[in-house]
Amino acid sequence: MRAIYSGLTYYLDRIDAAVSPSNNFMQAVLITPNPKAQETVEMEVNATEPINHLVYQVIGRGNILLAKTIPVPNQKVYRFNFRAPNAMAPKGRVLVYYVRSTNNEIVADSVTFDVEGLFKTSITVSTNVKETQPGRQVDINLRTTPNALVGVLGIDLGILKLKSGNDITLEEVIEDLETYDGGQMTKYNPPWYRRRKRSLSWPGSKSAGLIFCCSVIMTNALLLNTGNEDNTVVHTPVPAHNLKLGLLEAIVPESRLVIRKKYPETWLWINTTAGNDGLAFISHAVPDSLASYKITAFSVHPTDGLGIATSHLILLSLGHFYYNDSTYTVLMGEDLAIQVVVFNYDTKAITAEVSMENRKGEFDFTVAGKDSGNLEYQNRRTKIVRIPPSEGIPVSFLIVPKKVGFIEIKVSAATSLLGDSLTKRLHVQPEGSTQHYNKALFIDLRTSSDIIKHNISTIIPRNAIRDSGENLAFSYCSLVFIDSSMCLVDLMGPSIKAIDKLLYMPTGCGEQNLITIVPRVIIMEYLSKTNRLTTAIRNQHIGGLRNGYQRQ
Questions:
Q1: Beta bridge partners of 488
Q2: Residue 105 has pLDDT above 60, yes or no
């Protein structure tokens, strides 16, 4: 067969005539326009000779769902019907044949068609809002089969633009179920030939034996099985299968499997159960970021099976105000620019008044490259910006934190008609370096059984940063005495809990680095001998040893 398109000629597979010893054939035709599961399907059979009986088999998902022999009153054209089983969806095949009385020849044909009604469990998703601001609560309403398990996924739409395939879809389920039916396949065709969506042609059956392909046939009748020779000329690149090349295989080390635990781009990953009325309700806050989120859902019922939401609801997380600074910690006295973006979703340009408050006096306002003057004593600073329609304008405030701990960052924007505000917390750490001190205390209980109390004084240097004393940390070594003749020294308990802070040594040379590694080896050996080495402790110390080895 030759095809000409746009001046180019393509040679496709030839169409061979069917083969029969008696030169008798039959054809199966689907009469029902749109067959559905659990509904009546009508078929028509055309034969080249009058037949007195007919055998039909209904095949779905690789299984014979229905088989029946019906008498035919010596007619060449005959119609019959059957009730389509659920397993015929999404694609079913009807095979018809009869046996000639003169030479016991089997004359057969088959037809494949789509069947609707694969998903009996319906599910719909709706929300109380289409657009909302970051951090606001959103109500998600689900309607499905009563008492069905419902899974909900909400994911950043920007991630799907990079790569999709993260969710279950109707198309994937249908495509997977269609592969259950073996279909027509011969030994003369390579594996790529069966990919009807990628190949240029898909030939019909040349003999009755090929119609029963992928089935085990036990019969004493004449079943002609003539193969289709592969005469296809393909003008598109085709991958080679089972091609052996005399090349040395490179030794590729197995990559270490790293299990991902954090999914910041995923908003919803939850499941719930529908009530007796088939309704489920989920209330959740949208992430505090400017993004669009796509919500999908599926449901599973014990008897009705799987259901997938056909309409994907896109929830836009839109706000007029966005905090664009990702800084979480800053040193006290360090200049920091707090940047926000003010959006205008109107069709006209607007003028906004953007203000940053400092009512508690936790920081000072400043100006880059200039003397701050009296700005540092202000409890509020305001900037006027004009925002074009459907755009956003960044606004920055330069501050210098003067308090250790968490400070409040509050920015507001107001126009003649609208207003919005945003509050964040910023962690301010003291400048300088941490100082470590050691103090030994001898306790002797051999002469007294009373509880001994000691007050330990901590020396704070004169040059200590103000308010940094709140970050004092203590480590200790405990001694447990049994009696006057025997004592048990438990040095491992506190050491295991604070192994990362046990020794403070620089790592500039090998000896200093090894000192920090040795305690982990001793602790693991001690816990292993006492049968107290758990998986969590072992993984913790192995990770520390690995870091020390790499540093060495």
A1: 480
A2: yes
